[in-house]
Amino acid sequence: MLILLLTCLAGGLGAVARSLVDTALRARSEALFATLPWVATLAINVTGSFVLGVATGTLTGAPLGILGTGFCGGFTTFSTASWQVARLVGRRSRRIAAAYLVLTVVGCLAAAWLGLTLAG
């Protein structure tokens, strides 16, 4: 029961961290995010994937579940990325949607691999 509660708490903290990072990134470059609103989501997902890679390379058992499922699950936002891709397609920005989708998948996998490699 304690592991479940800690995982939930970590998920909440991850969601708060995501919101803070998103707000900070948008505040630094309003012009960039007006043109490319999905950049913050991409940065958050790649960063979260890197943290998950490091966690996977250094932790086991409950700590890995709490940090990986809890914090990283709350921090990353693949549902938002999917919605943003669909929205770009709906606006007939298919090339940008495809590039964003590929960049998200490849970037997140590369970041997770890098984190795992550095931790291992």
UniProtKB/TrEMBL annotation:
Tell me yes or no: is Lipoprotein among this UniProt entry's keywords.
no
Q: Does the keyword Plastid apply?
A: no
Q: State the annotated membrane topology for this chain.
A: Multi-pass membrane protein
Question: Which residues does the record give as Na(+) binding sites?
Answer: 73, 76
Q: How is its activity regulated?
A: Na(+) is not transported, but it plays an essential structural role and its presence is essential for fluoride channel function.
Pfam families in alphabetical order: CRCB
Q: Where in the cell is it found?
A: Cell membrane
* Reaction(s) catalysed by this chain's protein: fluoride(in) = fluoride(out)
| HAMAP family named among the record's database cross-references | FluC
> What is the protein's known function?
Fluoride-specific ion channel. Important for reducing fluoride concentration in the cell, thus reducing its toxicity.
Task: State the similarity comment.
Answer: Belongs to the fluoride channel Fluc/FEX (TC 1.A.43) family.
What name does UniProt use for this protein?
Answer: Fluoride-specific ion channel FluC
Source species of the chain: Tessaracoccus lacteus
Q: Lineage of this protein's species?
A: Bacteria, Bacillati, Actinomycetota, Actinomycetes, Propionibacteriales
